[in-house]
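User: I'm curious whether this sequence folds into something compact or stays loose and floppy. Could you predict its structure so I can see for myself?
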Amino acid sequence: MAIFQRIPRETIREQFTHYGLFLGIVPVYVGDPDGECRVAVRNWVPEWTLTAAQFLLEQFAALGLIDYDGFMIKLTGKIEGIAR
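Assistant: Here's the prediction. I'll summarize afterward.
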């Protein structure tokens, strides 16, 4: 959980390359967006928000209200000082 077990800066810089928003509401760190697409909620955001957003997305898709074809993440910026 990113509230109590915050991700250290070094880990963020090593594993993630971008900031983003999952479904436009949940702030996340994104690593390798063109490949593996690692995702973790940002520090100070509860982990359950990612799960809740995913659940709501699947429910809307099951009702046919939206077309769902995988993860929907908007990249909002690059993480500066990446150690690569």
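Summary: The beta strands are 18-22, 26-31, 38-41, 73-78. Residues 6 and 43 are 5 Å apart (CA to CA).
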